[in-house]
């Protein structure tokens, strides 16, 4: 049976199969429009349905009174609206939407980078143990040192993601000394399984912290606010900038190491920068929303099917699509059991399974 790399061999596109620039531009515009509509729905929909006109007034007022010492009650009275509406939009839904946007975009880009790095169309942030390393580090921080601040979670996620990535690359190069997609994949799966088992062991050994870990691991965004977003967003932004800057080098790397080297590319430097970008993206996304699955697989495949394998077009579209899927999942999480809600991580899993079945049947979407 062929390995993961056999699915990822570069294919010379047939005439007429490479999407044109206008098609890529249209796809980006449509993705932006869809994302804007979903963000509007995220601000409108919840346990309280706030009228769109009221949402607009609240957003304008909140933006013009940043840092004001006036209370939410005073601002609501000044606008002549119910204080619950003002609080729901300004204090809960705006930061929650921003977190969903940032985490979704970060996971989509991390998945796209990982698929090129491993030359494996089934790769995602979990396949190299990055998410598992970040989650395990958070568990250790909570259980062993009693960490509770969002900044501590961000630091733990980044350290865990970085250490796990280094461990995978170290394990993958033992003996042969050569990094191959197969060795990376096997090392990542093995390390991820070990860390997941250790995470469960620590969680079960600390009953008092169990509820905190369960909420965080399920990807429940209802407990996230600006205190979570503030330390994570700069890290995610740095990862996004680095990932987009690597798009051209990734196009060369996707041709294969030998071909890339013959074209004068710095293969190892590009790989190390991609590892750094994946660490920043996956670590910040895990800190923002917990271990979310499937987004890193779905969005890059849809983008590749839409605009082709050119990373300069694929990466921006993958970021927009994954952000849109994340916001959609968060909106659905609020209405599935309305007026209650379910963790967004469960919804992304339910969305991802049928989408991946469809994508797996498309040969073009499954190649890198």
Describe the structure concisely.
This protein has 15 helices and no strands. It has 368 residues and is mainly alpha-helical. It has one domain (41-360): ABC transporter involved in vitamin B12 uptake, BtuC (Orthogonal Bundle), CATH 1.10.3470.10.
Overview of this protein structure:
By secondary structure, this protein is an all-alpha fold. The chain has one domain (41-360): ABC transporter involved in vitamin B12 uptake, BtuC (Orthogonal Bundle). Helices cover 73% and strands 0% of the residues. It starts with 20 loop residues before the first helix and ends in an 8-residue tail after the last helix.
Task: Give a short account of the largest sheet.
Answer: none
Give the CATH topology.
Answer: ABC transporter involved in vitamin B12 uptake, BtuC
Specify the structural class: mainly alpha
- The CATH superfamily is known as ABC transporter involved in vitamin B12 uptake, BtuC
Tell me the overall shape.
Answer: globular
Total strand count, please? Answer: 0
The ordered string of helix (H) and strand (E) elements is HHHHHHHHHHHHHHH
**Which CATH top level class fits?**
Mainly Alpha
Portion in beta strands: under 5%
Determine the oligomeric state from the structure: single chain
Indicate the CATH architecture. Orthogonal Bundle
């Amino acid at each position: 049976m062929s390995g993961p790399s056999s699915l990822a061999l570069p294919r010379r596109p047939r005439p007429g199969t490479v999407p044109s620039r206008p098609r890529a531009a249209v796809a980006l515009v449509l993705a932006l429009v869809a994302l804007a509509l979903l963000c509007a729905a995220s601000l409108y929909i919840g346990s309280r349905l706030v009228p769109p006109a009221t949402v607009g007034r609240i957003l304008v007022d909140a933006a013009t009174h940043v840092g004001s010492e006036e209370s939410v009650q005073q601002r609501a009275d000044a606008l002549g609206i119910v204080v619950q509406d003002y609080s729901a939009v300004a204090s809960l839904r705006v930061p929650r939407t921003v977190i969903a946007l940032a985490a979704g975009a970060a996971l989509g880009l991390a998945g796209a980078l990982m698929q090129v790095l491993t030359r494996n169309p089934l790769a995602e942030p979990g396949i190299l143990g990055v998410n598992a390393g970040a989650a395990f580090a958070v568990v250790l921080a909570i259980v062993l040192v009693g960490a509770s601040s969002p900044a501590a979670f961000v630091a733990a996620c980044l350290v865990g993601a970085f250490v796990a990535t280094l461990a995978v690359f170290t394990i993958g190069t033992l003996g042969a000394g050569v990094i191959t997609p197969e060795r990376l994949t096997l090392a990542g799966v093995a390390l991820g399984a070990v860390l997941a088992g250790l995470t469960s062991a620590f969680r079960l050994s600390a009953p008092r912290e169990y509820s905190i870990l369960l909420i965080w691991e399920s990807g429940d965004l209802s407990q996230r606010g600006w205190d979570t977003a503030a330390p994570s967003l700069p890290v995610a932004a740095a990862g996004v900038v680095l990932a987009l800057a690597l798009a051209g080098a990734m196009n060369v790397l996707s041709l294969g190491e030998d071909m890339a080297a013959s074209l004068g590319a710095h293969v190892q430097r590009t790989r190390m920068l991609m590892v750094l970008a994946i660490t920043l993206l996956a670590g910040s996304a895990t800190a923002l929303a917990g271990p979310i699955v499937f987004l890193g697989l779905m969005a890059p495949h849809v983008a590749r099917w839409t605009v082709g394998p050119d990373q300069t077009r694929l990466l921006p579209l993958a970021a927009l699509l994954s952000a849109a899927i994340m916001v959609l999942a968060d909106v659905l999480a609020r209405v599935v059991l309305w007026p209650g809600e379910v963790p967004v991580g469960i919804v992304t899993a339910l969305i991802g399974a049928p989408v991946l079945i469809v994508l797996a049947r498309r040969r073009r979407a499954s190649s890198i």
